[in-house]
Each structure stands twice: as C-alpha cells, then as structure tokens.
C-alpha cells in the first residue's frame, strides 16, 4: 500500500480557508454581539426578542414607603423581659401576626395587622396604634360594621 503524503500548505497564504476566514473571527461575522444592528439584524430580531429598548419604569424614591416589620413571635426574642415595648423607638413601623406569643405585652406601634392585635389581646396584652385614639378592638369592629351596613342601604 502506498504511503499518503499529507499536505502542509507550504507557501499557501490562506491554507484552504478562503481569503478572510483565517483572520480573527472573520468567518463568523465578528465576535460576540458585533453586527447586531447591521448584518446580524434579522438574527437578533428572531432569536433575541427584547434585546433592544427599555421596559417598565423605576418608581421615584420619594413615593416609595419603606415599612420595617416585625412578627409577634419575634417580640419575646428581641425584647426579653420587657412588659412594654415602643416599636417606633426600636425602628419598626408595623407589627405582623406571624408566630406565637406567651407573655402579656403592651405594644406601641404605628400600624398592626388584625391577626397580630388578636394574638396579643388573646394573651391579655394590648396594642396601642400611634396616631389613632385608643379604642378597643370590639369598638373598631362595630364602627366598621356600621359603616358597611350604612353603605349597603
């Protein structure tokens, strides 16, 4: 069997790749995202939807209210031994009803969920909402029910 001599392309300028394919990223039409607005435009439209343009909006920071919350279950852990807690001074603005509570507490807070108020009242404590006159939960429910019944009539 005769020996096959491999071609080494000695003296060939392109080594069989054509005029520009042997240069950097020549056959691909550029590297990466090069040419997306020119010769690769249809590829971008078809396979990269949403590549161009902006979507949505960013709300102004002056409109956004940052509410720092704490759950009822965390009160005993964060404030051990305290019977009266002012959450406004501690940096919290809302009390939520997650977790369980065993001790009787008096809590001052800007706002609280109904579940949180219910859990603290269930143990014998009380929640004082800042900016609102002190009113029992039952009175609040009665006021709300009256408003609802008056609007239905």
Question: What can be said about this structure in brief?
Answer:
The protein is of the alpha/beta class and 153 residues long. The protein is built from five helices and six strands, in the order αβαβαβββαβα.
Give the helix level as a range of percent.
Answer: 25-40%
The domain tally reads 2
Class per helix and strand makeup: alpha/beta
Strand percentage, roughly? 5-15%
| Terminal residue distance | 107 Å
Explain what this protein looks like in three dimensions.
By secondary structure, the protein is α/β, with parallel strands linked by helices. Helix content is 29%, strand content 12%. The protein contains five helices and six strands; from the N terminus they run αβαβαβββαβα. The strands form two sheets. It has a three-stranded parallel β-sheet with strand order 1-3-5. The N and C termini lie far apart (107 Å).
Features:
153 residues; alpha/beta; Molecule: Ribosomal Protein L15, Chain: K, domain 1; Ribosomal Protein L15, Chain: K, domain 2; three-stranded parallel beta sheet; 5 helices; elongated
